[in-house]
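Usage

Read records sequentially. Each one opens with the input sequence:
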Amino acid sequence: MTGQDTTGTVYIGHSELSSSDEALTLRLANRHGLITGATGTGKTVSLQILAEGFSAAGVPVFCSDIKGDLSGLGIAGTPKDFLTARAEKIGFADDYRMEAFPVIFWDLFGEQGHPVRTTVSEIGPLLLARLLDLNETQEGVLTIVFQLADDEGLLLLDLKDLRAMLALVGERASELSKTYGNVSPASVGAIQRRLLVLERQGATHFFGEPALDIRDFMRKAHDGRGMINILAADKLMMAPQLYSIFLLWMLSELFEELPEIGDPDKPQLVFFFDEAHLLFKDAPKALLERIEQVVRLIRSKGVGVYFVTQNPADVPETVLSQLGNRIQHALRAFTPRDQRAVRAAAETFRPNPDLDTEQVITELGVGEALVSTLEGKGVPSMVQRTLIRPPSSRLGPATESERRNLIQTSPAFGLYDRVRDRTSAFEILAERSAEKLRQEEAQQEREEKATSNRTRSGFELPKFGSSGRKTTRKSSVPTTRKRSSRTDSALDTGMKAIARTLGSSLGKALVRGILGSIKRGF
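and closes with the structure output:
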């Protein structure tokens, strides 16, 4: 039942209580979904078997690989006793076989897959402000930077372009404030500092060209199966803001690029967002509204979005209400807070009179889950306790050599591996600065040349404090007399100062007597 799309569904597993198979209807797969559960309860395997099912049905898949386990999708699984036992227990043994699926590896850092890049302009000020964790005032200044770049025809492709524009805005702050609104130098400085932090996290690799063509995520293999795009996210998780913004940018690009197609027989692309809580944590209201809008409207583009996280409470209610297909693995209730989370998770399902959902959530074993999918006209099915089917691909990561071989034989090989750096804001502004410097140097050179020409022609500007006339006549006063005159003058000055200090007529007479005696001595 797994390998081929014969029923228009993706097989999930079997419910012993109702003796029925649980499957996800392809026609309703674009109504989005949610996979939740505590660490180690089997969320990754559920994601893996859904990716296999969608690929077999000819639906391309994108998923982020946090721990490296999903890389095993590209390698055929190895028969193991516990996998075979599970297949037999759920009546799946006849259809169960080991097989590899067509995969393309991607990596923002270009280390474990093809590089993924976009331009600063395509990210836009709203997402970039979220990425830089800016306040409202700083976000306003960043918006002015983007607007000025548009108005002056300056391309913002990479981070050095953005740095150059920030420097320009800082220099022209008073001028720009009259046209675009207040530009605070302090805000410009704050953005530059945040940008430096972002660069140190490796964001330089993400911004630039060639920018990713989002349609490369929607390829099919030669046999008609959908390609499974796997983003290496183990290193990216060290920069959670960059991770969440990248995935949100992808959704936004899909929303803007794809045409409206209504509800197709099967999705054009299914998008798995692992560690989904990172997208919503501390997100400003404007960003949450953007996420809600994209999730609500993107289904009409034929895209299904599946969030993977530990607890349904990690997802805002406005988004949670859009997620029709649910797989809930075990939650633990060790504290009052955990118990409230279990109760809230149970309330998100359509009740089953034969099942105490709240109690079962805490009793589920590894590879078990509560499953509810959309059926008929989009109505959720009653929740069922389900044994999840075993995967056909490897249960675990691909080796380094296996990954390298898959990268080199990928249809995306060579498309994005070499960076292209064309003329943009940085180069244009650098050329403007160089031209201004050349003009200033040329002006200075002309002034120095004019001064030199005047000197050679015998004309020299008078020195400060002189009459401008020169004289060669020697003084007729002997040198000795000159010294004497200078000495007399010095004595007169000193004695007059003493007289002023004494301030009496007697003092003055005494000084005059002393002065006269000294003069007669000369």
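Summary fields computed downstream for this record:
- The longest strand covers residues 9-15.
- The first helix runs from residue 43 to 56.
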